[in-house]
Known about the structure:
By secondary structure, this protein is an alpha+beta fold. It is about 30% helix and about 30% strand. The chain has a 6-stranded mixed beta sheet with strand order 1-5-6-4-3-2, covered by helices on one side. The two termini are about 20 Å apart.
Amino acid sequence: MQKRPWLVESDKPTYQVLKWIGGGGFGQVFKVLRNGQTVACKQVQLDNAEAALDEYDHMRLLRGAPHIATLHDGLEFSRKTNTLSFFMDYYRGKDLDRQVQMLKGAGGHFTESQIIEIGYQIAVALEFCHGMNVLHQDMKPMNGTGEATRRPLSF
């Protein structure tokens, strides 16, 4: 594992969990309160540490990119829970997958202009990633926000 001076070891988290958002094989995501701000916290088990550190490094490279969630400073390691946690902007609303399912269930659909806008924003984000030699390896509707400005959340 390469040296990362910004990695902080702490068994007293700097955040308060407000709500579980979701998770999968890679880790769990929570809505948390940290330094007076509501942010998203991605918590990854240490057996996925190298992949999590790679994701963190990629997101650091992509800070300020159009249509990509903004990473916040600070990566925390807890021996107590054997996890790495990092923080990014929290976006209210449903992810793109949930929006599609809700529309489908109600017999509705996105308009053509909405589909074009969603596709454009995703293409701009991916073009920026590729320009920085970052490959998004988990592109799917669940990893996009449900806001007007959609942002890939997971790498």
